[in-house]
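User: For my dataset I need records formatted as: sequence, then structure tokens, nothing else. Please produce one.
Assistant:
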Amino acid sequence: MHPTPHTVYEALATTAAQWPQRPFLQVLPETADVYGIAAGEITYSAMLSQADRLKDLYAEAGYRAGQRVLLLVENRPAFFAHWFALNALGLWVVPVNPDLQSAELAYMAGHAEPVLAIAIENRIGDLERAGREAGVRFPVIRPDDEPPQSHAAGDMDPAVKGLQSPAAMLYTSGTTGAPKGCVLSNRYYLKLGEWYRGMGGACPIGTDGERMITPLPLFHMNAMAASAMAMIHVGGCLIVLDRFHPRSWWNSVRESKATCLHYLGVMPSILMKADPDPRDRDHQCRFGFGAGVDPKLHAPFEERFGFPLIEGWAMTETGAGATLTNNVEPRKVGVSCLGKAEDDLATRIIRDDGGDCDADEPGELLVRQTGEDPRDGFFSEYFKDPGATAEAWGGGWFHTGDIVRRDGEGNFYFVDRKKNVIRRSGENIAAVEVESVLMQHPDIKAAGVAAVADTLRGDEVFACLVVDGDRNEERARAIAQWALGRMAYYKVPGYIAFVDGLPLTGTQKIQRGELKTLAANLVDDAATINTCNMKKRQVA
């Protein structure tokens, strides 16, 4: 019998002791070529050895529990080696989206106050500049460098040990401007793995060698927590791609011998555009798990490729503390059904006045655990923002900001988002954050940002701008190009409309409902400039 793990590192060590020669990671040749690293499999014992070597180096260099380390290493194996090593010593990792630009990196550096950053070669200078701009001093090293000596003090509460100690902090777009840092405990990660292992139904995973392929980024909870911890809990192999490559996707699924996969809604839409192929069912995949599949394509995809797409709902904040999954037969396919709540999940759907909704009446979803600790499995807090944490847990319920409805049989259906968040290709974008960056442009007098529908990506970013002088395509493209240097490409407006003024309240706040209507009406207007073709991931 192995001791019950209380940290992510201990979970890895436990599995490595039980199945040392099983593969923990597989790096496919395509991903290896992109990153310039070796292809092949890394066993549990090899990963543990890498983590232990780094753990000793960090300890010798004086790094201590409670300190924070930025990780900008994309989906490379080094992400896991450094995370496990730092976790063993009680440090938090702060994964960094490699698409973030100057303003975003400076904010993160100032907010997280790291003692160290680990970055790929071409982003070292960016993180060093971000630290200088934020007034926070920290060294930036490559993944293969030995850590420099640390003289910073640890600030971990000695009463917070083991399960409740922070393992990571993930940034999520908020509605009031700057992203919030979600502090995630070891319990958060371990419970997600336990939940996935026990989910069952149409998503069975066993201990005889599962292989999960994901193109999703490790700076999101889906890949870092759900996929990784699920495989660690069952001794399975995680195949992490650098990103989603539509043309080679099925070759990757076949080559890796994946038994399950993770997706976001944009992926099935792209894959269904390809011509039918005799090899469409030539794979070993038993199920796909994700969110946001186009309802019209749900059943056709399953028929064509031969396995179910299981739709689920969760948030970075909820972890396994609150999940909804449509994994139990009879599944309702093609109607955005999220399934029923498990016995350990308490739910409410409320109107704007706080009253409970009737059956099939849309309202905001509130959640909590039914046991002694209503927050078990949820995020620990918003870092440095106790007010926002308390507001999110108003009345003892976590307020999700998502609008759902529940039918008479107890099935939940996703309807919309109450929060002013744009959901583009799986990325949450706070309109207020985009507006705050745009307002730094010297020629922009007012900026209002809203979501408009996009058949492929779900939402696209639409900006209504008040400017002096020229209001033409050249001006719009110059503004978009300027924005590309300051925020992640996916946040930059895909449409720009120059307007005389924004719809405002009596207290000069943007009327969000009217702005969204205005954007929808202007998206096909001849004077609106389409800048979507400028929104491309920057490749070094």
